Amino acid sequence: MTWQCLALDLRDDPAAIADYERWHRKGVIWPEIVQSIREAGILDMQIHRTGNRLVMLMRVGPEFDADAKAAADAASERVQAWETLMSTFQQPLPWAGAGQKWVPMTRIFDLSIC
Questions:
Q1: Under the phi-then-psi rule, with left for phi > 0, alpha for psi from -120 to 50, and beta for the rest, what region is 51?
Q2: Which of these, 29, 91, 92, 114, has the minimum number of CB atoms within 10 Å of its CB?
Q3: How far apart are the first and last CA of the chain?
Q4: How much of the chain is in helix, strand and coil states, percent to nearest 5?
Q5: How do residues 80-104 score in pLDDT, each as one tens digit?
């Protein structure tokens, strides 16, 4: 099992940020979204926020394949509807590629190897 860390910004709008957080609460997030995450081999996922910057931590199993997850998401009408909704709150990082939302972060320190 490994951890992956990704970053994304929200629009710098307190009402939009509050809405984004509300959509991610238990009982509000669409069950199909949670199911698609679990089916992809993502064992745990957390999103943290400071200001309008989001950091996502994903613990993935050896069967996780980011390209397969992206293909499954693209083929899912419900996931695409969720992504369209979430895009109303999000803005790409300045260094994100064209069409890229979540940008992988590079680990620069690991206490376990010190």
A1: left
A2: 114
A3: 20
A4: 40, 25, 35
A5: 999 999 999 999 999 999 989 999 9
Tracing tokens 């010190």 back to the chain, one arrives at 114
In the block, tokens 């710098």 appear at: 12
38, two tokens = 């679990």
What's the rounded Cα separation, in Å, for the pair 49 and 51?
Answer: 6
Q: What's the confidence (pLDDT) of residue 11?
A: 97
Structure tokens at 2: 């490994």
Which amino acid is located at 112 in the chain? S
Distance between alpha carbon 22 and the CA centroid of its chain, in Å? 15
